[in-house]
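Lab notebook: predicted structure, single chain.

Context: the supervisor wants predicted structures on file for every construct in the current expression panel, including those that have not yet been purified. This is the next one on the list. No modifications to the sequence; it matches the entry in the shared construct table.
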Amino acid sequence: MLIGAMNHPMRDVAGEIWSLRELGFDFVDLTLEPTRAHPGVIDPIAVSKVLAETGLQAVGHTAWYLPLASPFPGIQQAAFDEFSRCFDVFGRIGIHNVNVHPDQRVALHSADAIIERNVEALWRLTERATEWKLQLMLENVPGLFNRTEVLRQVFNSVPGLAWHLDVGHANLGAPSNVTESMLQTLGDRLIHVHLSDNKGGDADLHLPLGAGTIDWEAIVALLRRQRYDGTISLEVFSPDRDYLALSRQKLRRLWDNSPS
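Prediction complete. Output recorded below exactly as produced.
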């Protein structure tokens, strides 16, 4: 199992990679967002060089707010164009797994219509991703696309799509964390995981592990039972990165002490 973290898109990408290396991480969850990590300003050759120098691996992360299911054709096309720019950068860096977030901000549409628009968009994006030899993975997000039955419908409709589990999101908008039910249904599509803590409800707090209400010993046991042994990113967004480092240590300890 490899433990990584995300670069801050408002900071120099090379500096962020070196910072994560110094904190002991195995890979960077490279997010391409404005201002300093936008695909229009990032230098793929320079990033590849820094990754080689640090020995870090990388997975790709796209902005959660790109309106891929917008009912306005021009806006949706602009989102697709941004994804294409991201795919080009990821492909040139040599990254394989790249995430995308479903878009549920489609006003006055029924849940079925929103799901359908996302399925159509994900088909198009999956086809585009293959042109750069990328594996597209869908992240569960709070709301409609945090329901196991909805995600199952999407994955059944888009066979080439992999799953990116966000455990913090799975703890929101539901009486209890739905990670277990998701793993039971979608575990065979899982290739990447995000971890962050929160206190349930609707607030995606991105707290350090142990600062919220999620039972991390149980979550790690679920992943181990699933025989998952891939990449896990810590989305701990505290300004003080000591909390990020402590979360890495906690995860490694829990993982190593959990029965496989």
